[in-house]
């Protein structure tokens, strides 16, 4: 037949058309060529990932098996022992510091007491010298001359506001020596209150403590007491008077 004839013109045209369209051409494979350093980098990257994954798996296995828990328990035990040792050292240091502070306080208290004792001894020494001078004057005074004197007058402000302690020594010598003196003490207090100068006679005649300032003696007497002045008054000077039968027999003043 016409189609079975290989030499026919139609068959030749069909073979030419097939060869042009590539139907009979052999298969071709296209491959991309990588540089060698990229290949090396890829190998290193994959190896790193593999090692990291292996390490994680190893740690996970230790945790699941209980080995990591034992190590943590040992670490916690060591830390607790260290904390306990540090607490003991701190307690010892605090005890030493407390002992040192207590010893310093004891030494300071002892020093303060010794200072007070020395001051008291010095004051007693001054008072004894003054008493000696007074008695020498008392013994050597003229028998024909009457005399009443005040010595050793002191006034000290107390911690409580408005209170002042006074101390004085009164003597009677001369022709009145040995005669019983019956009188009282009177104080004239000069000060300032609210910017004004004030004069206060103490004690007041109608005051509750008026009788407490009576004085009776023959040769000498040491007198002590408390003056109660309004706290609003700033005292600048105090004068003491020895009064008998309404007359001032002796007086002495002191500034504050």
What percentage of the residues does DSSP assign to strands (E)? 25-35%
Mean pLDDT, nearest integer? 77
Class inferred from helices and paired strands = alpha+beta
Coarse morphology: rod-shaped
Order of helices and strands: HHHEEEEEEEE
Describe the 3D structure.
It is rod-shaped, with a radius of gyration of 60 Å. The chain is 45% helix and 29% strand. It has 256 residues and is of the alpha+beta class. Strand 3 and strand 4 form a beta hairpin. The strands form 2 sheets. Strands 3, 4, 5, 7 and 8 form a 5-stranded antiparallel beta sheet that branches.
What descriptors fit this protein?
about 45% helix; Coagulation Factor XIII, Chain A, domain 1; alpha+beta; five-stranded antiparallel sheet; about 260 residues
Give the helix/strand layout.
Elements: H1 9-21, H2 36-65, H3 67-139, E1 147-157, E2 163-173, E3 181-193, E4 196-202, E5 214-217, E6 220-228, E7 234-244, E8 247-255
Antiparallel strand pairs: 1-2, 2-6, 3-4, 3-5, 3-7, 7-8
Q: Could you give a quick summary of the protein structure above?
A:
With 256 residues, the protein is an alpha+beta fold.
